[in-house]
Amino acid sequence: MTETMRAMVLERPGSPLRSVEMAVPRPGPGEVLVKVAACGVCRTDLHVVDGELPEPKLPLIPGHEIVGHVAALGEGVAGLRPGERVGVPWLGRSCGRCRYCRAGKENLCDRPGFTGYTIDGGYAQTCLADARYVFPLGQGAVAGGEARSAEEAAAPLLCAGLIGYRALKMAGEAEALGLYGFGAAAHIVAQLAAHEGRQVYAFTRPGDWAAQGFARQLGAVFAGDSDKPPPAELDAAILFAPVGALVPAALQAVRKGGIVVAAGIHMSDIPSFPYRLLWGERVLRSVANLTRADGEEFLALAPKVPVVTHTSAYPLQAANEALADLRSGALTGAAVLVP
Ligand SMILES: [Zn+2]
Ligand SMILES: [Zn+2]
Known about the structure:
By secondary structure, the chain is an alpha/beta fold. The chain has helices at about 45-50, 100, 150-155, 160-170, 185-195, 210-215, 245-255, 290-300, 320-330, and strands at about 5-10, 20-25, 30-40, 65-75, 85-90, 90-95, 115, 125-130, 135, 145, 175-180, 200-205, 220-225, 235-240, 255-260, 285, 310, 310-315, 335-339.
């Protein structure tokens, strides 16, 4: 008799996920089977489900903020034990041979695999992962505000936290740091930035008092509407909201030599803007994916801050509701599916 599991499956972009009963996959050589305890819902999942990213595997199990326990090891896996708590991130594999991989930039690999996009992810009771890209999570990776388990609390670290951490590094030495879009990633970055003695200026959708209050609670010195200028000049800004119009707004808000980092995988078109907004050696750049080194650094740092995640749990079968709440901005903090 084959064991079965429940998974939420995307059959066609633009249509809701379907709850499907399917066989539990078997780990091949170098793979690990993870029993999913929690899987965060990331904005990238929305872009995949809505058909805004070009080449998802179909049918697809989304989800790339996975925390669970090792259920079975494939042939040749070293360094992981059955029952061990692990995290599975967006970078599911890289080729190890292209110019980027050889230069330590596996986040830019020419032939990558991405969890929950080109590889089945964690909106399921179990998932497979390449053991070399899995992070062992010791005890107490993170404290959870409202989370009912350590796994639920840790799930948002696996992408929101990791990409946020990488974006924060790209923002350089900025003291006055703007965060545009105050969702799952920003709520973690705000804590890292405050821990490092930076001043966080949070910008939300105009009139989103809930998100602005949340930002202040997490140590932001200012929280306001993204369509208004900041009360002080910024040294850098990170854009988490997928809104192209925020690019010129952020360039306008940063000082000479300031850096604007676009941290999302997808963004609406950037409107044209006068060259003077970029003049003065301002820098505009994106951040793509993560390296395993980012993960190791960030997961070691998070308990020292300590990062406290704020999560809203949904049952696995309510994945469509979680995505809808993320789309409409009804969430503060991070949505997490708990199978
Ligand atoms: Zn590569
Ligand atoms: Zn993500």
